[in-house]
Amino acid sequence: MNRSIKFSLRASLIVLVCLLLPRGAGGTVDDAQSFALQAAEPYVKEGFQVREDYWGGDLGSGEKKAVRQQLFKGNEYWFWMGTEVERAKISVHIYDSEGKLAEQPDSWEKGHFAAAHVIPKATSSYFIIVAVEESSEERTHWALVYGFR
Amino acid sequence: MIAFSKTLKISASALLGSTLCAHAAQAPQHIDVKQMSKQVENVVVPLPNEIFGALNKLGSVNWREYVRTEKTSNFTERPRIALLLGTVIADGFIAVQAEDAPAVKEIGQRVLNLSKGIGVGNSITPHAKAITEAADKRKWEEVRTELDRTQSSVQAAMNEVHDEKLSQLVSLGGWLRGTQVLTSVVTKHFSPDGAELLHQPDLLVHFQTQLQGMPEFNLPIIHDIQTALGQVKPLVDVGGSTHISAESVRKINDITTKLDSGIVTKD
Q1: What is the rounded CA–CA span in Å between residue B240 and residue B111?
Q2: Hey, are the CB atoms on A73 and B139 less than 8 Å from each other?
Q3: Which residues of B are less than 8 Å from A69 in CB distance?
Q4: For chain B, which residues make up each domain, given as ranges?
Q5: What is the model's pLDDT at position B136?
Q6: Distance between CA B178 and CA B94 in Å, rounded?
Q7: Would you call B24 and A108 a contact, using CB atoms and an 8 Å cutoff?
Q8: Cβ of residue A34 closer than 8 Å to a chain B Cβ
Q9: Which has the higher per-residue pLDDT, A89 or B12?
Q10: How confident is the model at residue B43 (pLDDT cuts 50, 70, 90)?
């Protein structure tokens, strides 16, 4: 079984389990991670290696959080964000160490999924800003995974 | 399973298709970094292969030169085992770069033995098996994924029993070995782009902060690493248009080689 099929099955099984679980307060950061991995799935077929490590937490509607990540010039990165709260709107954006928006124009947001694409111009520390723009829940779990090639 | 896979394929395609129509909302062109720095979450330490991948794009590297499979000392102190474990996982990534199947399999076994030594062997057994199988089939991407999963599982198992500090030492051990090899390669074939891969001052601060929070690990190697990080930081913390010099790369290589020797051999 090739790597992308294995990844697809793994991510999808986690998502399936999450879908079968009761919604709302029962959600966890692990559930959010499964949705972030679902967003990453098509990119694995394009050769992106998705890291096992991830960031996660919960945010109120309108709240933001910054994570910092060392990126290397020469690599190409995608950051995928997900939440199990299906009616939530989330976003992820990438800034360089000077605070300048550094992401590619094909970065996207779609309801409870969002992704940001960066081809670093310099090897340095970058800021990844995650936000819950809107949500029906008081606190919304989020998770952020990344991949590179 | 076929029908299930088909459904999954359709849903993945639907997600990809819908993303093509989705656009990022207007994000501010600038943010106040000083304000953001106060709200930053923990950093994820890059894996050695993330750096090796970038290095490979600058020119071909003879990775076989850096493959290491010789047996290392047996330690009883858990912090030393954790550091060594991180180093050996990094050796695994080097062996994958070199596409050296026997070395990968041997390293997989060493990772398993070290994990047992630190009490987290159970979580590693399936990964060690997967590493061996993938190496036999020369499926290098799968080996890379399994090495990442191995490190992640080791650290998750440590975190579960509140051994977060040991988990941090695993990452540190891997980073040190990765940096040693990176500086060896760049010293041999110097280029400003290769040297720029060392521009990681925030990671150094991250490791320094973590080590300061481990006073209970009163071991010479931990003190040596603390001192070394302090020596390396000014060499890589160059501003704006300044390049990291060949001399700095050589110095960092000397420092990390000495540390690596301290990690793999008994005092």
Answers
A1: 40
A2: no
A3: 43-44
A4: 7-264
A5: 96
A6: 9
A7: yes
A8: no
A9: A89
A10: confident
Provide the residue count of chain A: 149
pLDDT band for position B3 (cuts 50, 70, 90): very low
Mean pLDDT of chain A: 88
Spell out which residues of chain B touch residue A55, defining contact as CB-CB under 8 Å.
Answer: 41-42, 44
Cβ of A138 under 8 Å from any chain B Cβ?
no
Of A49, A98, A114, the CB nearest to B144: A49
The neighbour count for residue A21, using CB atoms within 10 Å, is: 13
The token duo for A22 is: 């009761």
- Per-residue pLDDT for B175 more than 70? yes
B69-100: pLDDT as tens digits: 877 778 899 999 999 999 999 999 999 999 99
Q: Who contacts B23 (Cβ-Cβ below 8 Å, separation ≥6)?
A: A108, A109
- Report the predicted TM-score, pTM, of the whole model to 2 decimal places: 0.86
Report the half-sphere exposure of B189 (CA within 13 A, side-chain side): 12
Question: Mutual orientation of helices B164-188 and B140-160 as an angle, nearest 10°?
Answer: 150
Cβ contact A3–B142 (<8 Å): yes
Residue B155 pLDDT > 80, yes or no? yes
Around Cβ B106, how many Cβ atoms within 10 Å? 19
Residues in CB range of A50: below 8 A, 6 or more apart: A7, A37, A40, A43, A44, A145, A146, A147
Which H/E stretch holds residue A56?
A: strand A55-59
Over residues B225-231, the mean pLDDT reads 97
A48 burial type by CB count under 10 A (0-12 exposed, 13-18 middle, 19+ buried):
buried
Span of A5-19, B192-206, B235-249 with lowest mean pLDDT: A5-19
Question: Rounded mean pLDDT of B125-135?
Answer: 95
Task: Report the C-alpha gap between B48 and A51 in whole angstroms.
Answer: 12
Ramachandran bin of A34, using left for φ above 0, alpha for ψ from -120 to 50, beta for the remaining angles = alpha
Task: Tell me the β-bridge partners of A91.
Answer: A131
A43: pLDDT strictly greater than 50 = yes
Residue A88 burial by CB count (10 A; 0-12/13-18/19+): exposed, middle or buried? buried
Q: What is the mean pLDDT of residues A46-74?
A: 94
**SS3 assignment, position A129:** strand
Nearest CA in chain B to A102: B29
Instruction: Please give the Cα distance from B250 to B184 (Å, whole number).
Output: 8
Instruction: Answer whether B46 sits within 8 Å of A72, measured CB to CB.
Output: yes
Count CB neighbours of A73 within 10 A.
17
- Report d(CA B142, CA A103) in Å as an integer: 29
